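Let's practice the habit of predicting before peeking. Look at the sequence and jot down your guess about where helices and strands might fall. Then scroll down.
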Amino acid sequence: MNTLTVLIIIFLFFPVFLIPIFKKVGIASWKAVIPMLNYWEWNKMNGKPFWWFLLLLVPFINIFMVFLMVVETVKGFGKYGLGEQALAVLFPFIYLPYLGTDAKEKYLYPDLRPKIKKSPVREWVDAIIFAVVAATIIRTFIFEAYTIPTSSMESSLLVGDFLFVSKVAYGPKVPNTPLAFPFVHHTLPLTQYAKSYLEWIKLPYYRFPGFSDVERYDAVVFNYPSGDTVILEHQNQDYYGYVRDEERKMKQVKGDRYQQGMGRNKVWKDFNVVARPVDKRENYIKRCMGLPGDTLQIIDKQVYINGGEAFNPPDMQFIYLISTKGMTDGQLTNLLKNYNVRIEETFSFKGNTGNRMYGVRVSPEVAEAMKKDNYITGISKYVKDKSEVDPNIFPHDPEHYPWNQDNFGPIVLPKAGATVALNPVSIALYRKIINTYENNTLLEKNGKIFINGQEVDSYTFQQDYFWMMGDNRDNSADSRFWGFVPNDHVVGKAVFVWLSLDKNKGLFDGKIRWNKCLRVVE
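Done guessing? Here is the structure:
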């Protein structure tokens, strides 16, 4: 029996705890065990309107409605104290039968109850609790508001875009850490490092059914896979990349005295390093370029899926080299403003003889327009040569995978149930999947691979994995740098931008990008 079936059964038969109360108020006991009739009778007993019953049919909202119905029921027994009502909501399977079986507890129908005058403080407390619980259920299971902090998706999504992310698109996840401070992610407000969540209760991964699966080219919000470990003093840097840099430095310093792990040990000694559960890792938004089972390759910046060219969003950006002649920096600044290229996105390259050369991040359409400008003597897309091997590119094994961000692969994306051969070369691709994402014990020794103590030469994946990339291809920390995105890290689908603000402009100087507000994410 799967988790969803269990939850549905619990919901449908929850009112069985009301059998003693039904008896006490004169409702036939058998009505408490008939799905939905039990809620109908319960709603009538509480004297609530028909629309309360209808909201019980709405997934996730019905959870909130059950809480409210429990509170209304205990009010019938004169329990108006905040502590009594909280006790009933937290332990209804004990408190409700107690009210029904205790002879001293008397139930009054709503029209017979005395009117209780709440103090202003109590009214505010009730309103705040109501709002927090309702908003928490909505943002956990239905949709959540996000803002775009970086330019990795420009120009499809801009820094300062405020958007709604649908949790029901792919199916909402049960929180791994349900005990958390509301409306914050992983760090308490007004603190630098204090965790906003407790790990006393850890729930296993479960995703409710959604409207669709992740589709190729969707704009997807997900928990940052490499965010499982974080250096608190350097939270904007990838922990694993930081460790790799330290390892390289230690090799240079120690020479023959270097031993594997010296760099990692130094990081752990010098900084505060913490592990975060999946739901408390940073939220990233990228475009899904590869689905489970796809073969993906990047050739001169162009992504290929299963041998064919992948779709390029119209507003995606690349670095283009532009050469100018006889222009001052001020003139160049004004020229770039005409093409809506911000100054902080301009940086110098080594110039060729007689010309000044710069790199700018623009879309192919803007690049074509700039070619016609009389002040620009040349423009070309900047592409790293295949020989420029980058050790920071996944899987961080340049000896066997001599790739860079512009020329990468081919690579096959792992799919649940698929089996791959394991050897000292291929293990680099799957090491983190086996050990971290799928919770196995991995040991590599003398050219042999051991999983959970058994020597193996193959591995079967337990879940699906995706390949995520930013539309601003030359300014995006994405799957090219840290690898696959597990299915259990997927949060939701970006669907709608409701507000767009330009951080570089004042309120009365075009801060609101009116033409970018109220638009569907494509």
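How did you do? The radius of gyration is 29 Å.
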